[in-house]
Write a structure and sequence with these properties.
The protein has nine helices and 13 strands. It is an alpha/beta fold. The strands form three sheets. Strands 6-7-8-3-9-10 form a six-stranded mixed sheet, sandwiched between helices. Strands 2-1-4-5 form a four-stranded antiparallel sheet, covered by helices on one side. The protein starts with a strand and ends with a strand. This is Iron complex transport system ATP-binding protein.
Length: 267
């Protein structure tokens, strides 16, 4: 049971955004989509969820062609967390309940309500259930948005820069919880990210976009400083600090004297 993308391309008229993107992911993993601003990270996610229509390519989830799946059925298999969720006027409980829309025909069932209660506990939001979502902090609100996506009971979770407006503590809280849920529920998550260090901490796989093409798709342990240099135009070293890989930007002198093809140091 896998998520499979082959030869996916998209452009606006004669202006290509990306082409030839292909990768395969198993359940229970997180894939970080990385690249400079304008590389097409958000556009790729929107093509995967069919907000945008790719010019060519295949997208399959557990053997099902997502391009031809009816919208309501698609929402039962794939959930999307955008960069901004807009104004939040409902309570936390009702906001998460919106995620059950693909299953509700007239009124929420007991199963729908029980599912929301369970997810609020999973995301450590149960104590905020009756609070207006708009009154929450940025980190809490982002967890509510993820909880709403989880209420869809998806197999595939797409997240567009979920930590872009959060401070360091809330970045860690959101990504830690997301990683735990993905692993425990056997989901597949594709997450666009700006922070390389956050990606090394939470992503099992890296998809690197560069100048409209896929520079690399590999596991976290296979990422090299040269890959990062090609994508970001900046020499880096990868160092191990307390069991985690940390990206260290190098100045011109450091880049000249750095030895070894991998520039990976144990700390």
């Amino acid at each position: 049971m896998t998520f499979f993308v082959q030869d996916l391309s998209f452009g606006y008229g004669s202006d290509p955004v990306f082409s030839g993107v292909g990768f395969e992911l198993p359940p229970g993993c997180v894939c970080g989509v990385l690249g400079v601003n304008g590389a097409g990270k958000s556009t790729l996610l929107k093509c995967l969820i069919r907000i945008l229509t790719p010019s060519c390519g295949e997208v399959h989830l557990n053997g099902r062609d997502l391009r031809r799946m009816p919208r309501r059925q698609l929402s039962r298999h794939v959930a999307y967390v955008p960069q901004s969720s807009g104004a939040q006027l409902l309570s936390v409980f009702d906001t998460v309940l919106l995620g059950r829309k693909p299953y509700i025909t007239w009124a929420p069932s007991r199963k729908d309500l029980a599912m929301v209660e369970k997810i609020l506990v999973t995301m450590h939001l149960d104590h905020l259930a009756l609070r207006p979502a708009g009154s929450l902090s940025g980190g809490e609100l982002q967890k509510v948005t993820i909880a709403r996506a989880l209420a869809q009971e998806p197999e595939l979770l797409l997240m567009d820069e979920p930590t872009s407006s959060l401070d360091l503590k809330n970045q860690m809280a959101v990504m830690d919880r997301m990683s735990e849920v993905v692993a425990s529920q056997g989901l597949t998550a594709v997450v666009s990210m700006h922070d390389l260090n956050l990606a090394f901490r939470h992503a099992d796989y890296f998809l690197l976009l560069n100048n409209g093409t896929m520079e690399a798709f590999c596991s976290r342990d296979e990422v090299t400083p040269e890959m990062i240099r090609k994508v970001y135009g900046l020499p880096v070293a990868l160092e191990r600090v307390r069991g985690h890989t940390v990206v260290v930007p190098l100045d011109s002198h450091q880049a000249t004297v750095a030895m070894g093809p991998s520039l990976v140091k144990a700390g």
